[in-house]
Structure formats: C-alpha cells, structure tokens
Amino acid sequence: MTHFITSKCNNCGQCQKVCAVECIVKGNSQSFIDPSTCIDCGACASECPYSAIQDKATPDTQIDFNKNAEFFSVGSGYKNQK
Ligand code: SF4
Ligand code: SF4
C-alpha cells in the first residue's frame, strides 16, 4: 500500500512541494496521491499540517485509499495534467 490522502485534507498544496516524483494532484475538494507513481518515501506525510496523509488503511480510511486510486484511474487527475 502506498501513501494516500484522507478527507482531512484541505488542499493547501504543501505536500505537492516536497514530492520528488510529482504524484500528488489537487482535486476539487482535496488532493490525491497516484498509487502507481508514489515511491513511498514518506516526505509528504511529515509536511501535512492536518495529518491527512496515511500509509496504512484502517476500516475508517480504506474508502479514502480507494478514492485516491479512483481519482487517477478515471482520468480526472494525473492524466489531465500531462
Ligand atoms: S499538505 Fe495535507 S492538507 Fe495540504 S494538500 Fe497535502 S494532504 Fe492536503
Ligand atoms: S510518499 Fe513520497 S512519493 Fe509518495 S506521495 Fe508522498 S512525497 Fe510523493
């Protein structure tokens, strides 16, 4: 499981600045991490002032993990930025 962003995110953009592989993209109400590109370095998690970035899904956050993957698989995020 790669890092992923939960609904605690307020889209501040702080994490994007430290991601070396540029796999964090802003959505309408929160940012998302592309699981196919993330190298699991953890740099983003320590930057987030809202503790919104996790690396282990719990029953409460599994839906957030799925939302990150779906954001990219439906082409609304990463692919449109290229
Ligand atoms: S730093 Fe945290 S609150 Fe800001 S965009 Fe990233 S995940 Fe969201
Ligand atoms: S864990 Fe590293 S590679 Fe993955 S999104 Fe965060 S900063 Fe980027």
Topology:
Elements: E1 4-5, E2 24-26, E3 31-33, H1 43-47, E4 53-54, H2 62-73, H3 78-81
Antiparallel strand pairs: 1-4, 2-3
The protein binds iron/sulfur cluster (SF4) (2 copies).
Question: Could you explain the architecture of this structure?
Answer:
The strands form two sheets. This protein has a two-stranded antiparallel ribbon with strand order 1-4. A hairpin with a 4-residue loop joins strand 2 and strand 3. The longest helix has 12 residues, at 62-73. The protein is 26% helix and 12% strand. The chain has one domain: Alpha-Beta Plaits (2-Layer Sandwich). It has helices at residues 43-47, 62-73, 78-81, and strands at residues 4-5, 24-26, 31-33, 53-54. It is an alpha+beta fold and 82 residues long. The protein contains three helices and four strands. Bound molecules: iron/sulfur cluster (2 copies). The site of one iron/sulfur cluster has 14 residues, from helix 1.
Question: How would you sum up this structure in a few lines?
Answer:
The protein contains 3 helices and 4 strands.
Pick out its properties.
82 residues, alpha+beta, Alpha-Beta Plaits, two-stranded antiparallel sheet, 12% strand, globular, binds iron/sulfur cluster
